[in-house]
Structure formats: C-alpha cells, structure tokens
Amino acid sequence: MADDTDFSSLLESPIDDSPRERRSWDAWPIIAGIAVAALAVTGGYLVASSAGESTPTTIAAPETTTTTTTAQTGENVAFPPGYAELDDMTAVAPQYIVSGGGEVFVSFATAVRRGFESTGDEFSGGTWTLEMDDGTTLESSDTVFATSVPGSFSAKFTGTDDAQPAQITLNDQWRRDHRWSDTEAPFAGLPYDLAEPILVDLGAGTTLSIDSLHLEEDSGSLEWSLHGTGNGGMVGATVVAGHPEQPEGAWYSEGGFAFLGFGSGPPLDPQMSGTLTLRSGETLDDSADVPFLTIQINTTLATSLPVDATWELAEVPNADL
Amino acid sequence: MPFAMKLAAGALLGAALAATGIWLGSASVDTAAPSTTLATTTLPPIPAEPAWIPEGGIRFASTILIPQEIDANDGVLTFDYELASLAGSSRFSTANPPALPETWGMTSAAGAHYETTTNPPRIDTFSELDRYTQDSARFDVPAEFESSDVRSIAVTGWRIAVPMNTVIHLSSERGSSITLGDGTVIMVDTILEQRNGTIIGFDVDAPIDPWRTAADTPFGLSTTFTGSGPGWLRSATRTGGTGLSGGATGFQLMWDGPTAPPDIALAINTTAWMPLDSTATVYEGGANG
Questions:
Q1: Of A37, A63, A69, A234, which is least packed with CB atoms within 10 Å of its CB?
Q2: Closest to B61 (Cβ–Cβ): which among A13, A39, A95?
Q3: Residues B165-184 pLDDT 10s
Q4: Chain B residues within 8 A of A23 when measuring between CB atoms
Q5: Better-predicted residue by pLDDT, A21 or B202
Q6: Which of B181, B180, B156 is nearest to B169 (CA)?
Q7: In this predicted model, what pLDDT tens digit does every residue of A96-113 receive, in sequence order?
Q8: Contact B283/A at CB under 8 A
Q9: Which residue does chain A place closest to B16, by CA atoms?
C-alpha cells in the first residue's frame, strides 16, 4: 500500500466549495474552553457536593456557541473534490485500488445531493477503461456492487499484474429501465402448445423469443431465447390462460430468468436461452367467456447512457494482493 | 492468484498494517492531576439533514464522522460519534458508509498517548429515519483521567470497502470442499435430487473476523453465494445450529434439473474492508488542551 500518498483530498469538506457555509469545528476548542471554564465553578461545586459520585453530567453547550444548521439546496452544493457527476444528483470518486493475480478492482464511493430519492434507475454499472502507467489499457470485465455497502462499488479488470493503474474512464453508464408488456396468443384450451414462436421487443436492443410454450392443468414450461446487444438485465414471465370451460382461468406462477446480472459479465450473449418451468397457481379470473392466453412480460434492462468521467488514480491509495 | 489467496493476502496485509499503524504512541500512562471539571462534555448539536457534511463533521471519502460526546469514567475515556454517508438516500442509507474508522489515537494534555480500535458497527444499529449510526471509541486511561485532560483525538486508520467477486468450482459430491485463503471452508453437505430440481446444501465454516463480515450476519449480506451460469434457480442462506454470530451455517442452491451438475460453479460476491492509515483529528481541546 502506498502509505506515503497524500490523502488530504479525502478529508476535504464538500462545503469547502460553498462560501455560504461556515465550519464551526475550528471553533470548538474555544467552545469547549468556554464551556469548561463556565462550568468549572459549577462543576467544582457539584463535585464537592457529590462526594465523588461518578455519574456523568451532560452539559448543554452555551447558546452563544451553539452552531446553526445551514440548509443547503442540492443545486447549490458542489460535490467534494475528486467526485465526478454521473447525473444531476449523483457523483462518484475512486477511493481504493486492489490489484493482484491478474485482476484489478477500483473501488468507488458514491455521493448524492441533498433531497435525492431513489427512483429505481440509479447507476447500475457500465463499461470502464483503465489506463496503466506503462500506457497499456484494460477494458472492464464487471462492475461489482455490495449489498451491505450500497454506497460503494468496484470496477473490475482482468489481465495485468505488472503495471500500476494511472487513470480510469467511465465510457458509458447503465441505468435500470423497467417495462411491462402483454403478449396474446391463440388459445383453445388445455393441454396447450404454442403454434409458433413469439418475438417480444424488450427495448435496449434486446429481443425475447418465446420459442415454445406448453401448458397442462397443473404445470407448464416455456422455452426462451434472447437476441440482441443489451447490457444485461432480468426478465420475468407470467402466463395467464382462460377458457369457457375453465371460466376461472388458470394462472401459472411467475417465473423469471436473468440473462445477466446488472454490471456483470460481458454484453448480452445473443445465444442465451433456457427453459422456464411454470407451475399452476391460484385462480385469477372468474369471468372468461372466450378463450384467452396472455403472456405477461416484466423486464428490467440495463440501458446505456452517455457519460464523460475520467479520474486520475495516482493519489488513490492502493494495495497489492 | 486465486481469490482465496487474495483473501489470505489481504488478511496478512491488514494484520501487518495494524501492527505498524502510524500511531506509535508511547505508553498509556498519564499523571494528570484530578480536575474539578465535570467529566462529560456535550458537543454541538448535529443538524437534521445528513446528506451533506454537518457542522463539526469530518469527511473521509464519502463517510462523515460527527463527534458527539466525551465522557471519562472509571478509567475509560469514551468518545461518542455518529457516522453518516454522503450516499445518504433512500437507497444508500441503511447500510455502512464506504469507509469506517478502525484505529484511534488520543493525546492527553500531559503528552501521553493512548490507542484503541473500533470494530465495524452492526447494521442493526443503523436507523433509516435519521440515517446515522452511533458508535464509540473507548480508551483505557488512568482512573483519575477526565475529559478535560484530552488534548486531541484522531482517527489514525480506516477501512475502505472494496466490493469484489470471483467464481470457484466444486465437484457435486457430498464432502467435496474448498478452502479459501482466509481459512473459510465451503463444503458440499447435502444433495437432494427431486423431479423438478436439485437442492444442494453447503456448509460454511468461516473464521471470526469482524471486518470480513462487517455490519451484518455472517455471509448474510456482506458475502453472497450464487450459482454461476444458466441452470441455477435461486440461493438461500441456511440457518440453525450453533453457527457464527448470526446463526447462519451455510447456504443452499437450487439447480433446474433432476440431478446435480458435475461441476458446481459458485459465484462469491463479497466486500473486502481494506486498511488505510490516514490521520484525521476529530476532537481538539479541553481545559488543559
């Protein structure tokens, strides 16, 4: 680890950039001095009168030294030094590098503006380029998130042990795009087999093909394949079928298949395919007077957005494993 | 280098850094005379909005440390503080900030140095309401030591979160195991083959390390195990028995097939808390400071 690195930027305050903000901590020695001096007489009396009682006494800070919270609007507050904005509300900065065994993890910390509320489409990874100090470059193999530390993530690279990371660039960023769609198919009752494949445009350059669908009274199966150039995501399918002889309809349990986790792995493999096992669930519809079959598709895809963010890594602490 | 070896190397690095921490303070002997001042000092109040650095807060990366109170009692000086994160939002607020304090140094007015360490706060200490977590650094001091005897308190070492992942392989036989570099043993314990799927149970025996499983139950959130590649349906933590502090003893994977695949590709996602020596003074003063 480069323990002689200047980490001062890590300790700089984000409000250093805000001339409207006062930092009161510098005055705390004075505050504490005033407080202690003002209380010394009282304290001496209490100590003397309590004959050595050890119960601590909480002392409110004198009113004249109590600081006032200064409300800041997100729009007017700069992000701390070293943070680059991904959007109006979010910025990230590299905070640590771990390398060894042919892999490099560049850890980032997130900062959000005051008033930020999750809308479900936050940064979900992207493609990165790592420039080493010998001039070589690496393309990212993953963006790793941590459930227990959601304000942190790492860009992962594979392929070198010899050079030191010098600069990292985020080429594009992925955001979550949630979509729902329904697909109808001719249906005459159970048992059922889909006559021909159904193609569903999921967006973000990805097409879902429902290659086959077989339904029986209590179970079924759905063969699927994905085509396109998407960046990853998840797809879930619910099959609902109804027939006049089965007016209550038959609901087949929702199944899902993730063709890639967000930020994980290379772009969508166009050959990705699989079989989704369906199980009959509770009845949903008691008014079917004509046969119907609906395939409900819910999709969460990673869409790519442009970004222009580059960070120098010379001052970022690092460790070799 | 395999991921397991990386973990071992990380552990060794952490131990080495801890042993050579920059706060090489001298003996914790203080001869300061008893004072008549009160032992507890309440620091200025914190504001309600934590998204940006509050008054009195110290920022380290995206972590804000806000001093709260100093209390000396019966030979223990307690420095209370709260932690908040610049990533304070409805998505980011209910877990650890990306950096946490670990090693501390305190200098008395008489010039004596004291050291202490803090473990990562448990995730259940966090409040979604105010987005802070509370913790304390405790220094062993002479019995007569009082808070006014403190000249300064500093965080001297931090732990930085580095999310990492890797894939390991196990053969699908009962008793098949792999030992990771940090001593964690993962073993195939049960294989339950059914018509519609196969449930594979794994035992995990992990060494106790508060930073390895920081802020939550063992491999509950800090470390996740999932099947890698198509065919794996879901995973779940298996609890019960006398496992580590959270009661978790292993995990289960469900395979979409009546028999287990011969090769189990296991994806591990974890967070390495890397040590970093960097000093930040978080408190100065006192009557004798």
A1: A63
A2: A95
A3: 888 899 999 999 998 767 78
A4: 55
A5: B202
A6: B180
A7: 999 877 889 999 998 877
A8: yes
A9: A1
- Determine which of A66-75, B107-116, B141-150, B267-276 has the lowest per-residue pLDDT on average: A66-75
What confidence score (pLDDT) does residue B157 get? Answer: 94
Q: Tell me the pLDDT band of A248, cut-offs 50, 70 and 90.
A: low
Judge contact between B267 and B3, C-beta under 8 A.
Answer: no
Distance (Å) of CA B57 to CA A223, A259, B151 = 56, 44, 18
Minimum CA–CA partner of A106 in chain B: B162
Q: Which three-class secondary structure string do you get for A178-235? A: EEEEEEECCCCCCCEECCCCEEEEEECCEEEEEEEEEECCCEEEEEEEEEECCCCEEE
- What is the DSSP-derived secondary structure letter of residue A10? G
CB B16 within 8 A of CB B8: no
Q: Which of B55, B72, B67, B137 is nearest to B288 (CA)?
A: B72
| Selected residues 83-112 of chain A with any CB under 8 Å from a CB in chain B | 93, 95-96, 98, 100-102, 105, 107, 109-112
Rounded to whole angstroms, the Cα distance separating B229 from B186 reads 19
What is the Cα–Cα distance from B266 to B251, expressed in whole angstroms?
Answer: 11
Please, which pLDDT band fits residue B286 given cuts at 50, 70 and 90? low
Nearest CB neighbour to A40, from listed B37, B45, B224? B37
The pLDDT, as a whole number, for residue A281 is: 64
Provide the token pair at A22: 């006062």
DSSP letter at A280 equals B
A25 and B71 within 8 Å at the Cβ level: the answer is no
Q: In this complex, is the C-beta atom of B168 within 8 Å of any C-beta atom belonging to chain A?
A: no
B172 to B181, B188, B198: CA distances (angstroms): 21, 7, 11
pLDDT at B34: 29
Please check whether residue A113 touches B, CB under 8 A.
yes
A270-279 burial by CB neighbour count: b if 16+ within 10 A, else e? eebbebbebe
Query: Across A213-222, B155-164, B226-235, which has the greatest mean pLDDT?
Result: B155-164
Contact flag B96-A149 (C-beta cutoff 8 Å): yes
Exposure string over B242-251, b if 16+ CB within 10 A, otherwise e: ebbebebbbb
* Nearest chain B Cα distance for residue A186, angstroms: 28
Q: Average of pLDDT values for B141-163?
A: 93
Phi and psi angles of residue A293, each rounded to the nearest 5 degrees, phi first: -145, 120
A122 touching B, CB under 8 A?
A: yes
Contact map slice: A 262-281 vs B, CB within 8 A: 272, 274-275, 277
Could you tell me if B122 lies within 8 Å of chain A, comparing CB atoms? no
Q: Taking the alpha carbons of A92, A98, A101, A102 in that order, is the dihedral positive or negative?
A: positive
Q: Global pTM? A: 0.69
Pick from B41, B53, B94: CB nearest A13: B53
Q: Helix (H, G, I), strand (E, B), or coil: what is residue A33?
A: helix
pLDDT digits (tens, 9 = 90+) for A262-287: 444 445 554 477 777 777 765 555 55
Q: What are phi and psi of B6, to 5 degrees?
A: -60, -45
